[in-house]
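Quick one, T. Sequence first:
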Amino acid sequence: MTDENELKAEIERLKFRNEKLHNHTDRMTDENYELRRARGPLDLEQRIADLTKQVDERDKRIKELDNSLSIALEINDKFQRENKKLMDKVRKAEAMRRPLDTMDEIAYRELEKENKDLRISIGHRIERVEELNAINREHQMMNRKLRSELEKENADLKYDNKLLAKQVEDKVEEVKALKMKLELLDNKT
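Structure tokens:
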């Protein structure tokens, strides 16, 4: 249950980070609209679009993984409840066993058959629970791997955003310098 809570908390943190990245990208887009309009579409605009697309894809993948984990946990919980019920029935059946001299032989055979059926049913349920546990472990490994990839991607996106911000600042400074030169030329004429 702790792994599930940690995973949910991590997914929420990643969603929050992605939302902040969306907001930052939107803010950068709004602040630099006039500059981009003046210079036309360049690689900066394409990079922002690419980064936005990557963030959207990560969001979609997080939702898919969250859904898969939820389904696997529900199935696992259901089978564990069923397994408990069946184990209780087996305990009751075993408690009812008495030596042959105190029981009717027909009743004993019926109990033996029911006990055998319950053991077979429990065996199937245990196998299914083991399969689901294996699936759950596999999902946890995949989630850890994806979480690691997302952290790396987020670090890369932050780095790219810093570079883009620097490029924007440089372009703004260039525009200011050109504007000052134009004003000087206008003043001379």
